Amino acid sequence: MSTYERISDKNAFYEASNFKKGTSIIHFRGDFAPQCKDMDAVMEELSKTYPKASFYCVEAEDIPDVSVDMEVVAVPTFFIFKEGRRVYRLDAANPAELNRRVKHYVELPDLSHAVIPQQRSNGDDIKSTESGENRSIVESHHRQNSDVPPKKRLEELINSSECVAFVKGTPQQLKCGFSRELINILQKHQIEFTTFDILSDEEVRQGLKTYSNWPTYPQIYVKGELIGGLDIIKEMELSEELENTLPKKLPLDKKLKLLIGQSPVMVFIKGSPDRPQCGFSNTLVDILRQEGIKFGYFDILTDEDVRQGLKEFSNWPTFPQVYAHEELIGGIDIIKELHQSGGLKDAINEKLKNSDN
Q1: What is the pTM of this model?
Q2: How many whole angstroms separate alpha carbon 23 and alpha carbon 39?
Protein backbone atom coordinates (compact mmCIF):
# COMPACT_ATOMS: atom_id res chain seq x y z
CA MET A 1 0.00 0.00 0.00
CA SER A 2 1.32 3.44 -0.95
CA THR A 3 1.67 6.14 1.70
CA TYR A 4 1.71 9.92 1.69
CA GLU A 5 5.18 10.93 2.86
CA ARG A 6 6.71 14.28 3.81
CA ILE A 7 9.89 15.39 2.01
CA SER A 8 12.13 17.34 4.38
CA ASP A 9 15.22 18.21 2.35
CA LYS A 10 16.43 18.98 -1.16
CA ASN A 11 18.13 15.62 -1.73
CA ALA A 12 14.97 13.71 -0.81
CA PHE A 13 12.96 15.83 -3.28
CA TYR A 14 15.27 15.12 -6.20
CA GLU A 15 15.42 11.45 -5.31
CA ALA A 16 11.62 11.24 -5.34
CA SER A 17 11.23 13.25 -8.55
CA ASN A 18 13.95 11.32 -10.40
CA PHE A 19 12.61 7.84 -9.58
CA LYS A 20 12.92 5.97 -12.89
CA LYS A 21 10.52 3.09 -12.35
CA GLY A 22 7.16 4.61 -11.54
CA THR A 23 4.96 7.64 -10.95
CA SER A 24 5.56 10.23 -8.23
CA ILE A 25 3.06 12.93 -7.20
CA ILE A 26 4.43 15.80 -5.12
CA HIS A 27 2.29 18.40 -3.32
CA PHE A 28 3.90 21.76 -2.47
CA ARG A 29 1.87 23.00 0.49
CA GLY A 30 1.74 25.47 3.39
CA ASP A 31 0.18 25.08 6.83
CA PHE A 32 -1.17 28.63 6.57
CA ALA A 33 -3.42 27.73 3.62
CA PRO A 34 -6.62 25.81 4.51
CA GLN A 35 -6.98 24.49 0.96
CA CYS A 36 -3.68 22.64 1.39
CA LYS A 37 -5.11 20.72 4.34
CA ASP A 38 -8.08 19.73 2.18
CA MET A 39 -5.70 18.55 -0.52
CA ASP A 40 -3.66 16.58 2.02
CA ALA A 41 -6.78 14.50 2.61
CA VAL A 42 -7.20 14.10 -1.15
CA MET A 43 -3.59 12.92 -1.50
CA GLU A 44 -4.10 10.42 1.33
CA GLU A 45 -7.12 8.95 -0.47
CA LEU A 46 -5.34 8.89 -3.81
CA SER A 47 -2.38 7.05 -2.26
CA LYS A 48 -4.79 4.30 -1.20
CA THR A 49 -6.53 4.23 -4.58
CA TYR A 50 -3.26 4.08 -6.56
CA PRO A 51 -0.83 2.06 -4.37
CA LYS A 52 1.67 1.63 -7.22
CA ALA A 53 2.37 5.38 -7.25
CA SER A 54 4.39 7.39 -4.70
CA PHE A 55 2.78 10.39 -3.00
CA TYR A 56 4.76 13.14 -1.24
CA CYS A 57 4.32 16.58 0.25
CA VAL A 58 6.81 19.43 0.57
CA GLU A 59 6.41 22.35 2.97
CA ALA A 60 7.19 25.03 0.38
CA GLU A 61 8.76 27.56 2.75
CA ASP A 62 10.89 24.94 4.53
CA ILE A 63 12.87 24.09 1.38
CA PRO A 64 13.00 27.44 -0.45
CA ASP A 65 15.72 26.35 -2.90
CA VAL A 66 13.46 23.63 -4.25
CA SER A 67 10.44 25.97 -4.40
CA VAL A 68 12.48 28.48 -6.42
CA ASP A 69 13.84 25.76 -8.72
CA MET A 70 10.29 24.52 -9.39
CA GLU A 71 8.91 28.08 -9.76
CA VAL A 72 6.35 27.55 -7.00
CA VAL A 73 4.80 30.97 -6.27
CA ALA A 74 1.62 29.87 -4.50
CA VAL A 75 0.22 26.84 -2.74
CA PRO A 76 -1.10 24.29 -3.35
CA THR A 77 0.97 23.32 -6.38
CA PHE A 78 1.24 19.72 -7.62
CA PHE A 79 3.78 18.00 -9.84
CA ILE A 80 3.51 14.56 -11.43
CA PHE A 81 6.71 12.77 -12.44
CA LYS A 82 6.76 9.64 -14.61
CA GLU A 83 9.95 7.63 -15.01
CA GLY A 84 11.96 10.54 -13.64
CA ARG A 85 10.43 13.06 -16.04
CA ARG A 86 8.08 15.88 -15.07
CA VAL A 87 4.87 15.35 -17.02
CA TYR A 88 2.28 17.58 -15.39
CA ARG A 89 1.84 20.61 -13.13
CA LEU A 90 -1.35 21.78 -11.40
CA ASP A 91 -1.49 25.19 -9.69
CA ALA A 92 -4.86 24.84 -7.98
CA ALA A 93 -6.85 22.99 -5.34
CA ASN A 94 -8.78 20.94 -7.90
CA PRO A 95 -9.33 17.37 -6.63
CA ALA A 96 -11.15 16.09 -9.71
CA GLU A 97 -8.45 17.28 -12.11
CA LEU A 98 -5.68 15.95 -9.88
CA ASN A 99 -7.37 12.56 -9.70
CA ARG A 100 -7.86 12.52 -13.47
CA ARG A 101 -4.19 13.21 -14.13
CA VAL A 102 -2.91 10.79 -11.49
CA LYS A 103 -5.13 8.03 -12.88
CA HIS A 104 -3.92 8.73 -16.41
CA TYR A 105 -0.21 8.63 -15.62
CA VAL A 106 -0.36 5.72 -13.17
CA GLU A 107 -2.18 3.59 -15.75
CA LEU A 108 0.09 4.70 -18.60
CA PRO A 109 2.46 1.78 -19.38
CA ASP A 110 5.42 4.07 -20.16
CA LEU A 111 6.16 7.49 -21.62
CA SER A 112 6.26 6.15 -25.17
CA HIS A 113 2.45 6.15 -24.91
CA ALA A 114 2.25 9.66 -23.43
CA VAL A 115 1.24 12.97 -24.89
CA ILE A 116 2.96 15.36 -22.49
CA PRO A 117 0.92 18.58 -22.10
CA GLN A 118 2.62 21.94 -22.33
CA GLN A 119 2.99 23.82 -19.04
CA ARG A 120 -0.55 24.34 -18.02
CA SER A 121 -1.84 24.97 -14.54
CA ASN A 122 -5.51 24.00 -14.44
CA GLY A 123 -6.33 24.07 -18.12
CA ASP A 124 -9.55 24.90 -19.90
CA ASP A 125 -12.84 23.45 -18.76
CA ILE A 126 -12.11 19.70 -18.72
CA LYS A 127 -14.81 17.12 -18.16
CA SER A 128 -13.61 14.48 -15.72
CA THR A 129 -13.63 10.90 -17.06
CA GLU A 130 -12.72 9.04 -13.89
CA SER A 131 -15.08 6.41 -12.46
CA GLY A 132 -17.87 7.42 -10.14
CA GLU A 133 -16.11 5.72 -7.22
CA ASN A 134 -12.86 7.63 -7.65
CA ARG A 135 -14.67 10.89 -8.35
CA SER A 136 -16.59 10.66 -5.05
CA ILE A 137 -13.35 10.00 -3.15
CA VAL A 138 -11.67 13.19 -4.27
CA GLU A 139 -14.65 15.51 -4.56
CA SER A 140 -15.78 14.76 -1.02
CA HIS A 141 -12.71 16.72 0.16
CA HIS A 142 -13.07 19.64 -2.22
CA ARG A 143 -14.98 22.02 0.07
CA GLN A 144 -12.61 24.65 1.43
CA ASN A 145 -12.13 24.96 5.20
CA SER A 146 -12.73 28.70 5.24
CA ASP A 147 -14.79 30.60 7.78
CA VAL A 148 -15.68 33.18 5.14
CA PRO A 149 -19.12 32.63 3.54
CA PRO A 150 -18.70 32.07 -0.23
CA LYS A 151 -20.98 35.00 -1.16
CA LYS A 152 -19.07 37.41 1.08
CA ARG A 153 -15.77 36.28 -0.41
CA LEU A 154 -17.02 36.81 -3.96
CA GLU A 155 -18.24 40.29 -3.03
CA GLU A 156 -14.83 41.09 -1.54
CA LEU A 157 -13.10 39.94 -4.72
CA ILE A 158 -15.26 41.86 -7.18
CA ASN A 159 -14.86 45.00 -5.04
CA SER A 160 -11.12 44.56 -4.44
CA SER A 161 -10.39 47.29 -7.00
CA GLU A 162 -12.40 49.59 -9.25
CA CYS A 163 -11.99 47.25 -12.24
CA VAL A 164 -11.42 43.50 -11.78
CA ALA A 165 -11.02 40.95 -14.57
CA PHE A 166 -11.56 37.26 -13.74
CA VAL A 167 -9.41 35.37 -16.20
CA LYS A 168 -7.66 32.05 -16.73
CA GLY A 169 -4.08 32.58 -15.67
CA THR A 170 -2.21 35.81 -14.95
CA PRO A 171 -1.51 38.76 -17.26
CA GLN A 172 2.03 37.39 -17.59
CA GLN A 173 0.91 33.81 -18.34
CA LEU A 174 -2.65 33.60 -19.63
CA LYS A 175 -4.14 30.13 -20.16
CA CYS A 176 -6.79 30.72 -22.83
CA GLY A 177 -7.25 32.80 -25.95
CA PHE A 178 -10.34 34.67 -24.70
CA SER A 179 -8.54 35.83 -21.55
CA ARG A 180 -5.53 36.85 -23.63
CA GLU A 181 -7.69 38.86 -26.02
CA LEU A 182 -9.47 40.63 -23.16
CA ILE A 183 -6.23 41.63 -21.44
CA ASN A 184 -4.80 42.87 -24.75
CA ILE A 185 -7.82 45.14 -25.22
CA LEU A 186 -7.62 46.52 -21.68
CA GLN A 187 -3.90 47.18 -21.99
CA LYS A 188 -4.25 48.76 -25.43
CA HIS A 189 -6.74 51.28 -24.05
CA GLN A 190 -4.66 51.95 -20.90
CA ILE A 191 -7.41 50.66 -18.60
CA GLU A 192 -6.60 50.46 -14.90
CA PHE A 193 -7.46 46.93 -13.72
CA THR A 194 -6.46 44.03 -11.52
CA THR A 195 -6.99 40.35 -12.25
CA PHE A 196 -8.01 37.19 -10.44
CA ASP A 197 -6.88 33.81 -11.76
CA ILE A 198 -9.95 31.56 -11.62
CA LEU A 199 -7.75 28.51 -12.21
CA SER A 200 -6.24 29.05 -8.78
CA ASP A 201 -9.55 28.60 -6.93
CA GLU A 202 -12.28 26.22 -8.07
CA GLU A 203 -14.72 27.57 -5.46
CA VAL A 204 -14.49 31.07 -6.95
CA ARG A 205 -14.54 29.71 -10.50
CA GLN A 206 -17.85 27.90 -10.00
CA GLY A 207 -19.38 30.28 -7.47
CA LEU A 208 -19.00 33.38 -9.61
CA LYS A 209 -20.95 31.78 -12.45
CA THR A 210 -23.98 31.47 -10.16
CA TYR A 211 -23.43 34.77 -8.34
CA SER A 212 -23.28 36.78 -11.57
CA ASN A 213 -25.60 34.54 -13.62
CA TRP A 214 -22.86 34.54 -16.26
CA PRO A 215 -21.69 31.04 -17.23
CA THR A 216 -18.41 31.73 -19.01
CA TYR A 217 -15.02 33.39 -18.58
CA PRO A 218 -13.47 35.91 -18.71
CA GLN A 219 -15.71 38.23 -16.68
CA ILE A 220 -15.05 41.89 -15.91
CA TYR A 221 -16.47 44.00 -13.08
CA VAL A 222 -16.41 47.76 -12.50
CA LYS A 223 -17.20 49.13 -9.03
CA GLY A 224 -18.59 45.72 -8.06
CA GLU A 225 -20.99 45.50 -11.00
CA LEU A 226 -20.69 42.96 -13.82
CA ILE A 227 -19.95 44.54 -17.19
CA GLY A 228 -19.84 41.24 -19.07
CA GLY A 229 -17.45 39.02 -20.93
CA LEU A 230 -15.16 39.37 -23.92
CA ASP A 231 -17.95 39.93 -26.47
CA ILE A 232 -19.37 42.85 -24.46
CA ILE A 233 -15.93 44.43 -24.11
CA LYS A 234 -15.33 44.07 -27.86
CA GLU A 235 -18.69 45.73 -28.59
CA MET A 236 -17.85 48.57 -26.20
CA GLU A 237 -14.50 49.00 -27.94
CA LEU A 238 -16.18 49.26 -31.36
CA SER A 239 -18.77 51.76 -30.09
CA GLU A 240 -16.06 53.77 -28.29
CA GLU A 241 -17.84 53.31 -24.93
CA LEU A 242 -14.95 51.42 -23.37
CA GLU A 243 -12.84 54.35 -22.22
CA ASN A 244 -15.91 56.16 -20.82
CA THR A 245 -16.99 53.13 -18.77
CA LEU A 246 -13.74 51.61 -17.50
CA PRO A 247 -11.17 53.54 -15.42
CA LYS A 248 -8.09 54.88 -17.18
CA LYS A 249 -4.66 53.84 -16.03
CA LEU A 250 -3.00 56.21 -13.59
CA PRO A 251 0.69 57.08 -13.37
CA LEU A 252 2.23 54.46 -11.09
CA ASP A 253 3.26 56.89 -8.33
CA LYS A 254 -0.25 58.31 -8.14
CA LYS A 255 -1.75 54.82 -8.12
CA LEU A 256 0.52 53.72 -5.27
CA LYS A 257 -0.34 56.81 -3.22
CA LEU A 258 -4.06 56.14 -3.70
CA LEU A 259 -3.67 52.49 -2.69
CA ILE A 260 -1.62 53.33 0.40
CA GLY A 261 -4.29 55.85 1.44
CA GLN A 262 -7.28 53.54 0.94
CA SER A 263 -7.46 52.70 4.64
CA PRO A 264 -5.93 54.17 7.83
CA VAL A 265 -4.02 50.88 8.13
CA MET A 266 -3.14 49.35 4.78
CA VAL A 267 -1.28 46.07 4.20
CA PHE A 268 0.20 44.75 0.97
CA ILE A 269 0.23 40.96 1.11
CA LYS A 270 0.25 37.85 -1.07
CA GLY A 271 -3.34 36.66 -1.32
CA SER A 272 -6.19 37.88 0.85
CA PRO A 273 -6.55 37.97 4.65
CA ASP A 274 -8.74 34.86 4.51
CA ARG A 275 -6.66 33.10 1.85
CA PRO A 276 -3.04 34.22 2.36
CA GLN A 277 -0.56 32.80 -0.15
CA CYS A 278 2.58 32.89 1.97
CA GLY A 279 3.44 32.26 5.61
CA PHE A 280 4.63 35.83 6.25
CA SER A 281 1.33 37.26 5.03
CA ASN A 282 -0.56 34.75 7.16
CA THR A 283 1.47 35.70 10.26
CA LEU A 284 0.86 39.41 9.65
CA VAL A 285 -2.89 38.96 9.35
CA ASP A 286 -2.97 36.87 12.54
CA ILE A 287 -1.10 39.57 14.49
CA LEU A 288 -3.34 42.41 13.30
CA ARG A 289 -6.45 40.42 14.15
CA GLN A 290 -5.08 39.50 17.59
CA GLU A 291 -4.46 43.21 18.23
CA GLY A 292 -7.96 44.10 17.05
CA ILE A 293 -6.58 46.41 14.36
CA LYS A 294 -8.85 47.04 11.39
CA PHE A 295 -7.02 47.17 8.08
CA GLY A 296 -7.44 47.29 4.34
CA TYR A 297 -5.39 45.11 2.03
CA PHE A 298 -4.08 44.79 -1.49
CA ASP A 299 -3.08 41.46 -3.03
CA ILE A 300 0.24 42.13 -4.76
CA LEU A 301 -0.13 38.91 -6.78
CA THR A 302 -2.91 40.60 -8.80
CA ASP A 303 -0.80 43.48 -10.11
CA GLU A 304 2.86 43.11 -11.03
CA ASP A 305 3.28 46.87 -11.53
CA VAL A 306 2.23 47.51 -7.94
CA ARG A 307 4.32 44.62 -6.66
CA GLN A 308 7.52 45.93 -8.24
CA GLY A 309 6.73 49.62 -8.02
CA LEU A 310 6.01 49.60 -4.30
CA LYS A 311 9.47 48.21 -3.57
CA GLU A 312 11.04 51.34 -5.07
CA PHE A 313 8.34 53.72 -3.84
CA SER A 314 8.82 52.64 -0.22
CA ASN A 315 12.50 51.69 -0.51
CA TRP A 316 11.48 48.37 1.07
CA PRO A 317 12.39 45.28 -1.00
CA THR A 318 10.13 42.61 0.50
CA PHE A 319 6.50 41.82 1.29
CA PRO A 320 4.30 42.06 3.26
CA GLN A 321 4.41 45.81 3.86
CA VAL A 322 2.31 47.68 6.44
CA TYR A 323 1.32 51.36 6.23
CA ALA A 324 -0.43 53.47 8.86
CA HIS A 325 -1.90 56.78 7.74
CA GLU A 326 0.07 56.62 4.48
CA GLU A 327 3.43 56.08 6.23
CA LEU A 328 5.41 52.86 6.09
CA ILE A 329 5.75 51.03 9.39
CA GLY A 330 7.71 48.11 7.94
CA GLY A 331 7.54 44.42 7.15
CA ILE A 332 6.81 41.29 9.11
CA ASP A 333 9.91 41.40 11.34
CA ILE A 334 9.15 44.92 12.58
CA ILE A 335 5.46 44.10 13.11
CA LYS A 336 6.40 40.98 15.10
CA GLU A 337 8.80 42.97 17.27
CA LEU A 338 6.19 45.68 17.96
CA HIS A 339 3.57 43.04 18.70
CA GLN A 340 5.82 41.14 21.11
CA SER A 341 6.80 44.35 22.92
CA GLY A 342 3.19 45.54 23.13
CA GLY A 343 3.96 48.64 21.06
CA LEU A 344 2.13 47.98 17.81
CA LYS A 345 -0.97 50.07 18.51
CA ASP A 346 1.21 52.89 19.88
CA ALA A 347 3.25 52.89 16.67
CA ILE A 348 0.07 53.16 14.59
CA ASN A 349 -1.36 55.91 16.80
CA GLU A 350 1.93 57.81 16.50
CA LYS A 351 1.54 57.79 12.74
CA LEU A 352 -1.99 59.18 13.23
CA LYS A 353 -0.69 62.06 15.33
CA ASN A 354 1.95 62.83 12.71
CA SER A 355 -0.66 62.85 9.96
CA ASP A 356 -2.86 65.28 11.91
CA ASN A 357 -0.01 67.78 12.47
Answers
A1: 0.50
A2: 18
